[in-house]
Amino acid sequence: MHNSPANLRFLFALLTHEGAPAAKLWESFRQNFSRDYLPYNHDYDSAPTLAIEQAFQSCLNTIVEILASFGLSNTAVGLLPAHERPAADESEQEHFAPKRQALRSKAAAAFQQFNDQQKQIYTDVLQSILSPSPHTLHLIQGRAGRGKTFLLQAIINNLRGHGHLLIICGATGLSAATFDRGTTVHKRFAIPVIEQGTETEAVLQSTMRANSPNARFIRAATAIVIDELWSLPRAVIEAVDRLLRSLLDDSKPFGGKPLIGVGDPRQTAPVTTENTKQATLENSFITSELLSNFTIHELETSQRQSRDPDFSAWIDLIGDGSTLSTVDLGEMFDITVMPEDAMDFLFPPDVLIQPARAVERCMLSPLNSTVDSFNNIILQRLSSEIHTKDARDTIKDGENANELDVQAALETLALIPHVGVPHRTLLLKDGQLCSIMRNLNVERGLVKHARVSIECIYQRSIKVKLLSSGMTYLLPRINFTFQPKSSPFVIHRCQFPLRAAYATTFHGCQGLTLSRTVIDCGTPIFAHGQRYAATSRTRARTDT
Question: What cofactor does this protein call for (predicted)?
Fold first, then answer.
């Protein structure tokens, strides 16, 4: 395997995060990790001893930075001490200091492109943050394609360009990765993740310590930004509120810290176990007493569908609808009953072989089973060699059970798909478009639903290219723990965190702007906002 030391260092950190013995790996492979730190035209046989030691130390310092992005420290995983890292707030300021002039220029250029409403919101939000004001909580919202992210990025660039420390986070890893130094709400505020289907009566509480580096970072920040706020359960937002009141010793909502939320309440709501309208409402931020403290800024003018105003108005009607009554998609889109027609429309041969173009297109369905079927059909059209990758499955506490019973259970449960977990057997090809199935590293954009292309398939790792950045990474098998429905067993699965991404669910398409889509109409819509999310991904009706 020929891979750069940078790729190997990231793989080392990822394996360590998954529980691999860091000290043993370091001793075995430190020359491979650090060879790019040797003096030019030297190798380990010819370099002076001092140069080798310096290379090891520089490499270790870099690895410490990577481990920190996973929430780990070198001493916690058994590595030698490295140079002391600056505090989080100091590190943040050092990162943006050389970029401030460019950020201010970007903000000014964006302002010139704003419509009148965007200019007013931009001005109002900045004035309330920079000048003493009782109105420090803002919610920028609007239907799909209204330019929410464009406006938010300009506000962020302005504040960072003038030296302000910001906390940028998103409801998901994908939304957080849109912004430099973004992270998820759960990670930033140490909010426990409650698995879907888990029932709990306890009030959700942050686990952050008041004297921790993260707490210091929060106190030092000028403002907090939460993207896709409406995708967060009410309990999570209220847990953030309680944490901030405690850390800042201030009884005002969110401890008086300025907060900018962004999102669209019309899109798919947080998932609930019951999946009823009442349960969805109770789980939504719309029923929280905190909402009344926010100044609402509603963006009205469509940016995404600006060249097709009739299409934009039709989507707005769907988004504003209060019922799940039937909508005739045939009045706006071409209809086909032939899967081959859908495939040819989305992925003709010249597009299929170019992941950078294929990522802009997608088949959308409410069902994971339909998504898998379409992905498998498209995979067969790729001409490259197919590779089969089997997972390593074990049953929790299986050593106490009969071996034959355990094996029989594993063979049966392997056939049952589980949401958010890769299949027991993966079929992969070079050049294939995939999505990542878990947040691996938000700072680098390796997050759930991020699109990658497969560059090379090895025996124990897969080299992928992150399409949003062009960077390549080595991914190992990682651990997933889940309990299949109607099963008493808890399964540990070690598998590559990849899924083909030529199709996705209505929920998974939120936030995407696509050049072409095909919408599966064969299955009834069963959750709030699904129909709206699916129909609003493209710029014109002819693209769907």
Answer: Mg(2+)
